[in-house]
Amino acid sequence: MRKRHTPKDRLITVALHVALAAGLFFAAFPIYWMLSSSFKSNTEIFALPPTVLPKAFTLEAYAAILGDPVKLRFFFNSYFVAGAVTVLTVLIALLAAYGFSRFNFRGKGSLNTLIISTQTIPPITLLIPFFGLVVSYGIFDTYVALILTYLVFTLPYAILLMTGYLNTLPRDLDEAVAVDGGSSWTALWRVIVPISLPGIVATSVYTFLLCWNEFLFALTLTKSTSMRTVPIGIQLLMGQHAFEWNQMMAMSVLGSLPLLLIYLVAQRFFLAGMTAGSVK
Q1: Model pLDDT, residue 280
Q2: pLDDT tens figures, 189-209
Q3: Residues 161-186, mean pLDDT to the nearest whole number
Q4: Section 230-240 average pLDDT
Q5: What global pTM score does this model have?
Q6: What does the H/E/C string look like for the chain?
């Protein structure tokens, strides 16, 4: 029997829809404003009252970015650093997570606690120590400095995420490989890895997003324009006497597109991987 909706139920439903619409507007309007401003001239952006839609639609901001090798270098640097960190993080985290998930060894609990405790340290407190280490080892303003630094922040969470996912996989799989004469190494690469794709994709997406958006350490550990990443490139468009707002917005749009595409393509795996450990 269909339940009759009372006036109170309809009022609650309307209130929920209004709240959702307000939340959607609050979340989406900055994105719309970024996209709209990227198609305006710099003069129109400073016009009063501000225009919601571009009066004169122009691609000059995108042309200025895509036609400048220096600005394109920012994107290459971000792709290279984020890609390298993602590959290394997934590889190391997978091996570590397999050890935590399948083996008992002395100090396992303490090591696990240490990894968890690193997540409580604010990254900004490590900025000066990292700067001193990078300078003393002679890797300042290099890809190596950024990659090693980002690994410190991505590995703990990646290990925890992968361990949680591997714990959801039955140990019978490993035992079946052992019965057939296979080693733990064989079980990992031929059985565990293929069925851990959601967890691996979730870890990869999270790591790539973290590295792509990082600003503070990229600003501190690099100096030359050829080593700057996209977040720093956007900041460099703020000159002493003039702000290239339309180019800043256009670079923000171009910088957001890869993340949006990655998330859309890997959304199913990402959600499965992020929630798998929580149901164990």
Answers
A1: 45
A2: 888 888 888 888 888 888 998
A3: 84
A4: 84
A5: 0.83
A6: CCCCCCHHHHHHHHHHHHHHHHHHHHHHHHHHHHHHHHCCCHHHHCCCCCCCCCCCCCCHHHHHHHCCHHHHHHHHHHHHHHHHHHHHHHHHHHHHHHHHHHCCCCCHHHHHHHHHHHHHCCHHHHHHHHHHHHHHCCCCCCHHHHHHHHHHHHHHHHHHHHHHHHCCCCCHHHHHHHHCCCCHHHHHHHHHHHHCHHHHHHHHHHHHHHHHHCCHHHHHHCCCHHHCCHHHHHHHCECCCCECHHHHHHHHHHHHHHHHHHHHHHHHHHHHHHHHHHHC
